[in-house]
Amino acid sequence: MPASAGQTAKKDYPITPVPFTAVRVTDGFWAPRIETNRTVTIPAIFKKCEETSRIDNFAIAGGLIKGEYKGERYNDTDVYKTIEGASYSLMVHPDPELDRYLDGVIAKIAAAQEPDGYLYTPRTASPGKVQPGTGEERWSELAISHELYNAGHLYEAAAAHFLATGKRTLLDVALKNADLVARTFGPEPGKRQGFPGHQEIELALVKLFRLTGKRAYLDLARYFLDQRGRGVTLKQYPPGNRFAIYNDATQIQAHKPVLEQDEAVGHAVRLTYMASGMADVAALMGDPAYLAAVRGLWENVVGRKMYLTGGIGSRHDRERFGESYELPNLTGYLETCASIGMAFWNHRMFLLTGDAAYLDVMERVMYNGVLAGVSLDGTLFFYPNPLESDGKYRFNKGRAGRAPWFGVACCPGNVSRFLPSVAGYVYATRDDVLYVNMFIAGEARIDLAGKTVSVKQETRYPWAGTIRLTVDPERDGEFALHVRVPGWARNRPVPTNLYEYSERGDAKVAIRINGKPAAANMDKGFARIRRVWKRGDSVEVVFPMDARRVTAHPAVKDDEGFVAVERGPLVYCAEAPDNGGRALNIVLPDKTALRPEERTGLLGGIVVLTGEALAADPTAVARVGEAAGMDAAADDEEEVPPASRRRLAPGAELKPHRLVLIPYYAWAHRGAGEMAVWLLKSN
Ligand SMILES: [Zn+2]
Description:
By secondary structure, this protein is an alpha+beta fold. Helices cover 30% and strands 20% of the residues. A 7-stranded antiparallel sheet has the order 2-6-7-8-15-11-12, with no helix packed on it. A 6-stranded mixed sheet has the order 1-4-5-9-14-13, with no helix packed on it. A hairpin with a 2-residue loop joins strand 17 (562-567) and strand 18. Helix 9 (201-212) packs antiparallel against helix 10 (215-227) and helix 11 (268-284) packs parallel to helix 13. The longest helix is centred in the N-terminal third of the chain and has 22 residues, at 30-51. The protein is globular. Residues 335-337, 383, 410-411, 414 line the site of zinc ion.
């Protein structure tokens, strides 16, 4: 058993999440998704990994079967991420068959490891042949080889598998590899200098540090971050070469030292993983410069570069951030992995600061940006998640709808590891404070300042705004309960001025303790209730669940003249099947009342919003402005995006239209067709 974290770590996040092993989710919204992930998505991804040689690559590298390496240089990570997801799943739901399957895959991974710990099947499986982008020798093209990126996902999978099963099989492989990386890289004389082109190993090394207490892993995580943008010359590739996109150091956030980066640029997923690693360093090393830098990046993203769904990275071209306020809807990229990265990053920012603003962003991206990435039945995926569709533009790697798999298959595995981990985002503690961060029904046993407190949460969130908490301390005693009051319930959709509600809601958040109205002190977005708690005490919090109209900052030209609709944490959209076959021509007058209606038979059971709106003739709606550029070498699954901005012809005739809005996450289950989050405003 490794030394537990805390024995050697002097500093840490001031707030500790309650591990999802201590939280049993019974929630009507999340529990079925977690179950579908376990029974459908995880087996489907493993099957794809088998069919595409992703698992055979390990067996070939290990000499277990004959063959040649097949696929891209990062394909090992799809297996690692799904092992991580399967491990989280095993923790909350024992499954001997899945456990045995993992043992088999892990045996192949272990066989693929070279005697000194090196593990990278593109090199080991075909030793005589240099795979594209891997470099002639080990570590020789770090900006593009993904050798260290792959290692990072191995470490995360290994940590999860060890915690889930107690088995060291994958952990031993990961530690042997991490020890090799630590012997190879670092500031000491005689070691290699460098940093990975795709961040990931940094936050993963921190996980290994937590598990083992081995300081070298934490130091190495910081070293890799510190190395970025410090005069390392990147190899230049000839024009037209598929790797020429990496000639630009901003693509991999290596144009400046990380502590000097105050604008989110380049590849969006990489930035979120880098920022998560920076938050880890800020917390575990107590470094205020790291905290200031990661906060600056967050303010830039959430203030200027985030979509209403919490998704980020607006450009298909190179999967990059756009300029400030460049948020096209039809052609927006919003990679599912970037949404998941936003959740990881924002959770860490909360643990570091205690500010619920970060959880508000996390909730937004969980319920909208992330959930849209997987179909309700768990078999189909989005890689990009645009806020608009014309039913024709094949935004999803060559398709106008969801896909069972992708050539670059990062997103499905990422979804598979995110869903079973949501239980770990519900509660957190700091001294004798118990934070209730997310509203997910279930039961938890929480260690709070030396005593066990059981908490039962009952709610129909996100459909209804009532949260009922039953608090059962093992003995009566004083402590504080901090219940997040979401920004959307306090007239702030986001903690910046990027989006605003059109009107202030009047409804107040109501709190009752043991049935009696109670006043709570608000601080950093939490209702704080400090008292002597007794067994069976109850707290009821009621959030106002009116449908709310949102507008974007005037600098977001793509949303100028448009309005979006939210209810609770959910962003809504109009989709063709509910609206007479069209959605892009719908006009939502300011005075239209929007009424919630429960539709248990529709899209897995949802609350729709209906109202008497207007619609223009479809020919009165035009695309204007420049089409987004696309580097032909960037991605051969991509088609060139069309012009994105939508405009209604002046004086267009408008006819009455019965509007039906569905939650954004539930779109694209009824064939390709029009969809819009941003609806034309009446003029
Ligand atoms: Zn992805």
